[in-house]
Amino acid sequence: MEAEYIEINFKDVCASCVENCCRRYYAVLLPDEDKKIPKVLKPFDIATKYGYVKAIGARGGLPCPALSPEGYCTVYSERPFDCRIYPLVVYLDEKTGEKVAYLDLGCPAVRESRISKDLVEKLLKLYRSVNVSDEWLRRYTHAPWHNRFIEITRWR
Fold it and tell me: What is d(CA 82, CA 112) in angstroms, rounded to the nearest whole number?
C-alpha cells in the first residue's frame, strides 16, 4: 500500500505523544481496503445511518491490535488511509454537498497548535489524491465519533 500514497512524516508531531490515538480510536477503511491491509488488523463493521463501514483499531477498551507495547504501529508502512491522514477528518456536508476538512481536537498536537500549515496542506493533498465517493463519505460522516473538530476548509 505504501507506493499508493505520498508519505508524510509524523515523527516530530507524534513522537512525544502519551495519549496515542491508536489506543483510543478506530480508523474507517476505504472500500476494499480491508482486502489490502495486514490480517493482524482484524476489520469490524460499524453501523451508520446509511449502512455499514469497515473499521480497524481500538475497540471495546482495547487498543489497535497492530500497536506494539511500546506504542508504535507494527504495520506502519501498510497502515490504512484513515490512519495516514489523521488528525485530518473529512466529512460530507449533506446540506451543501461540500466536503469539509477538519482537524480533530482529540489529538494533543491539534489542541496545542503543533500541526503546521505545511503538514495540513500535505494531508489535504493526500486526501484529494484518493477517489472517495460521496456515498462512502456519507457513511463515513455518520460513523460514531466524538466530533470535537476545528473546520479548516471546504470544497466541492
Answer: 22
